Description:
- The chain is α/β, with parallel strands linked by helices and 388 residues long.
- 42% of the residues lie in helices and 12% in strands.
- The strands form four sheets. Strands 6-7-8-9 form a four-stranded antiparallel beta sheet. A three-stranded parallel beta sheet has the order 3-4-5.
Amino acid sequence: SNRFYVCYAFAGSGKRWESLRKSKKYPNLARWFNSIVEEHGTALNEVTSVYAGKKGLGEPTATKSKEQSVNTDKVKKVNGDVSENNKGGSKPSAEIDLPDAEVGKVRLRFAPEPSGYLHIGHSKAALLNKYFAERYQGQVIVRFDDTNPAKESNEFVDNLIKDIDTLGIKYEQITYTSDYFPELMEMAEKLIREGKTYVDDTPREQMQKERMDGIESKCRNNIVEENLKLWKEMIAGTERGLQCCVRGKLDMQDPNKSLRDPVYYRCNPMPHHRIGSKYKVYPTYDFACPYVDAIEGITHALRSSEYHDRNAQYYRIQEDMGLRKVLIYEFSRLNMVYTLLSKRKLLWFVQNGKVDGWDDARFPTVQGIVRRGLKIEALIQFIVEQVC
């Protein structure tokens, strides 16, 4: 690649490169060079030797010193496949470590929302869970995060399972967040009684503005009895209950806005695709995920870095619930140029007849990619290369 040739041109420039590398003016240049060396070190040394010889530069500069060593807390240089069961047969140059992971004790979850088909962005998360489960001889479960009946359906559940199987992901079991609705409601009430949450009837737009400005809600200091009364209205789905939501009482002045009293429960009279009209209240993802992760024995929760600001919220909620801490492992979200990866936007194309369906060959879904003729092994290899 062009990066590679620029890299060996620098390395072959002798004292000039050493001067650039040690200069405090160009820290990003040295860091970039180190990353190239980590991936192409052997080939770079060979090419640099030839380059330096032809230019009469004498002995080539060493491409990697002890001080330059890449941080190995997360990445270790190894030879071989990602795993024995890697369907793609790719051989990336690095393995990724899962912090504080013990062989045989790792338990992970891939938790898609059943509001669309699996696309290439989700595939990265799914295959990363698969990778770590295999590397540490652990388990991965599939959990459907079905907390929003307005967007979800059995069609999406069925096709997500189909796509997960297509990717060759072996999972221990399938669970649903809705399996835990009774326990989640009990937890919400427990936190109300402990004064760690409150019921708020502030209109949504006003609430959003108050959170941005760090203004406490007028309901924040309601007595427990008033909160429990409104909570029962929410459970019943009354007109009064529909005006309310349950919010965590965290810190409205925290610079991290995710900690400014997030919403835990909302009313929604729509029937759920699995359990019908049994419930009128549903937990938010931010409330349900830390609870279910802990209850299901998850050791590491893999989340894309777009959730980084909400990590503190995740840990705080587990602490308030009195549950064990689940470690969060972040990975970069996969974005593509001129390609939509938003399920909401992809759904618009399907609903408006702009495409044949979720498996349209122009779609970035697993089924669309397969229909286009791309081998699933190639997709797996592409995703693994993004990770490693």
